[in-house]
Amino acid sequence: METFNGLGMGLHNISLLSSAKSRSISAENFTGEKGKGGLATEGTGKECARDLGVGWKVSPSISIKAQSQFIIADIQDSGAIQHMWMTCPKEHFRTLILKIYWDGEENPSVNVPIGDFFCNGWGERVNVNSLPIVVNPAGGYNSYWEMPFRKSAKMIIENIGDDDAILYYQINFTLTEVPDHAAYFHAQWRRANPLKYKEVYTILDGVKGQGHYVGTYLAWQVNSNGWWGEGEIKFYLDGDEHPTIVGTGTEDYFGGAWNFEHPKGQYGVYSTPFLGLPQVSKPDGLYQSQQRFGMYRWHIMDPIRFEQDLKVTIQALGWRSKGRYLPLQDDIASVSYWYQAEPHANISELPGKDELEVI
Fold first, then answer.
1. Are strands 270-271 and 275-281 parallel, antiparallel or unpaired?
2. Chain centroid, CA 21 distance in Å
3. Residues 260, 179: contact at Cβ < 8 Å?
4. What residue spans define the domains of the chain?
5. Which fold has domain 1-182?
């Protein structure tokens, strides 16, 4: 039987043998070394295991001090991250920042608040049932994005908040050869709060090199009455002055139609392998004043391929009187997900905690 290098396994090739080595990093095995799990003598569960000793859940999680960072993975080899699981209190969704560095690079390829990375951008947990991102009760955050690396992988959680944060995590990866045509995973967070009048929202810009765009998450707060999703998404590829790919409306891009309205007078939430509107937060008449939405679209079956550069924008459009479009001034945050060959253009630093805060 033909061997397999262990990257990209699915039901179509799950039976193939491979020489890849399976490893896992967690607070019970910080290095992921073979045969080194469950040996901690110090950790957040030490007191609970005081009558049982080593091997009895001594270190199930970590405490990340306020205004500090913790290296949760530092792998010096070639292979691929295949699954990540994390959980933390919702108060830290925007103050714990996930940063990932490939092959010793100085600028991260991933720089995203934890909540938004897992399609939970509003500080309130919502279940997500998609192919690459899964969120389960009561706050289990899972990523199945394949993330290959050739020399090293470093993963950091930065706590920009004023309080210490408890994080549980597990990172499952394989040590194996990586083919020459495998690209590196990237993700970037942006926000406009509010979007300026008559400006389009830029989801991604400044990407240089060859790659393919694989996903969009939007956390959208509507600051006006009426329908808000007439805007078109646009993909500018390889020097485009005008976009090559243009959508027909916001709900259309996320796989819905006719204002997401189902049943009549209500937003219909849904979560599918590639598209979803899993989160609709309604005003409560007291402290919650605006409608908020969380939406994702994965370009797994239809990746947007580029050879030199890429820019992605979306319009924020509603309606004014007499059937005219109204450019909206909403609070919009996004995560863009893509693969590309290195080197990559620098991903901009995130703003401070006040600019990240959900208010």
1. antiparallel
2. 26
3. no
4. 1-182, 184-340
5. Jelly Rolls (2.60.120)
Q: What is the pLDDT of residue 4?
A: 58
pLDDT profile of the chain (359 residues), mean per 10: 65 88 96 93 87 89 97 98 96 97 97 98 96 97 98 98 97 96 97 98 97 98 96 98 98 98 96 98 91 98 98 98 96 98 88 94
Per-residue tokens: 110: 């991933």
Token reading at 223: 């600051």
d(CA 334, CA 340): 19
Sign of CA dihedral 45, 100, 25, 16: positive
pLDDT at 67: 97
What single-letter amino acid sits at 114?
A: I
With residue 277 as reference, give the H or E element that holds it. Answer: strand 275-281
Nearest to 342 by CA among 203, 83, 117, 149: 149
**pTM surpassing 0.90?**
yes
Whether the CB-CB separation of 43 and 52 falls below 8 Å is answered with no
Judged by DSSP in three states, 29 sits in: strand
Identify the CA nearest to 295 among candidates 314, 270, 259, 266. Answer: 270
Question: For the chain, what's the residue count?
Answer: 359
The DSSP bridge pattern shows strands 165-175 and 21-26 to be: antiparallel
Give the fold, CATH level 3, of 184-340. Answer: Jelly Rolls (2.60.120)
Cα dist. 294→33, 114, 343 in Å?
Answer: 38, 15, 31
As a whole number of angstroms, the distance between CA 248 and CA 312 comes to: 15
CA 116 to CA 97: how far, in whole Å? 10
